[in-house]
Specification:
mainly alpha
């Protein structure tokens, strides 16, 4: 254990990653945290459960709330503990990928972008959408274990736990197991077709979720979001393929990232086909929640890999962060 800790503390990438994931936790000590979206809803959930609307909030998350309250924890302390628990799962996922697939590279601007996007991700999922953040962090660990060790049992167990915390996020992350499962078949025609169908299925889930949870999120920004995440993303991807060499390895985490990008772009293709039909008018928030969940893997790719597609990944992750920052802090 001492040797592992020594290696971590001597590794600048690891130290930066750990520092940046713990830094946003300090925001819990500022009064401004109470102005964040969902702060009051989660406080009500913690203190007076019966006052919440009759929605599936996740039985395991409810149990965690009751356990902390039974132990005498305040809502303030509960948020800090939950942040640290989620951070632990993310850090563990990071080191699993780093141990198995990271090759030492000179510090570069892709890593800077990855770290900046990471801060935004932690604010969104560990400070605002804390239930989704816990579910995503656990499910992400399951996917990373599967990529590294092909441990079906532990992967299934972690995603199942995540499902009973935040079912929506768990289902989306579970869909990412398909790129992981087929990471050695990324040039197979049927594989690409299956990813397109999977992208369509995810869009359908977003529409259903919008009706179930009331995500009516139409705004004047929607057209700009659509342009940024769909046609522009495809343009960046084509430029990326034209001018950047192929990966040194298409297996392991590199293969997973390549296939995950295909899944993401198939999702964006579905957005392009359905946007003007009005199918997504009521699911803006639901769709964005799906898109943002991908960011945890984009962060790992930017910080730890030399993927050919880092340009596209950097664009996708950055534009997601820009729209989030604008919506929460500037609008």
């Amino acid at each position: 254990m001492t040797n592992i800790f020594k290696k971590i503390t001597q590794d600048s990438i690891s130290k930066i990653f750990i520092f940046l994931i713990l830094l946003p936790a300090t925001y819990n000590f500022y009064p401004g945290i109470k102005k964040f979206p969902d702060y009051d809803a989660y406080e009500t959930m913690f203190n007076t459960w019966d006052n919440l609307p009759n929605i599936n909030w996740g039985p395991l998350y409810i149990l965690i709330n009751h356990a902390f309250k039974f132990l005498g924890s305040s809502y303030f302390n509960f948020r800090i503990y939950l942040y640290l628990i989620s951070a632990f799962f993310i850090i563990t996922s990071f080191f699993i990928i780093k141990k198995n697939y990271y090759s030492l590279v000179k510090f570069n601007y892709y890593q800077v972008i990855g770290f900046l996007v990471a801060i935004e991700f932690y604010i969104e999922f560990l400070l605002i959408r804390i239930r989704a953040g816990l579910g995503i962090s656990i499910a992400t660990l399951g996917v990373c274990i599967f990529i590294a060790n092909r441990n079906y049992f532990l992967t299934f167990l972690l995603i199942l736990i995540s499902y009973f915390i935040h079912s929506f996020s768990a289902v989306v992350v579970a869909c990412m197991l398909i790129p992981a499962l087929l990471s050695k078949n990324n040039n197979h025609l049927y594989f690409n077709i299956n990813l397109v169908f999977l992208g369509t299925f995810i869009i359908f889930c977003a529409e259903i979720a919008s009706e179930y949870r009331g995500f009516m999120a139409y705004s004047k920004l929607n057209i700009y979001r659509f342009i940024a995440i769909s046609p522009v993303a495809f343009f960046v991807y084509m430029v990326n393929c034209k001018f950047f060499d192929r990966d040194e390895s298409i297996f392991g985490f590199d293969g997973f990232i390549n296939n995950l990008l295909i899944l993401y772009l198939s999702l964006m293709f579905g957005v392009f086909l359905t946007y003007f039909s009005g199918v997504l008018n009521n699911s803006g928030e639901g769709l964005l929640r799906i898109i943002y969940i991908f960011d945890i893997f984009w962060i790992f790719a930017l910080v730890l890999t030399k993927s050919r597609y880092r340009l596209t990944i950097a664009y996708i992750a950055s534009i997601n962060a820009v729209f989030f920052v604008y919506s929460v802090f500037l609008r």
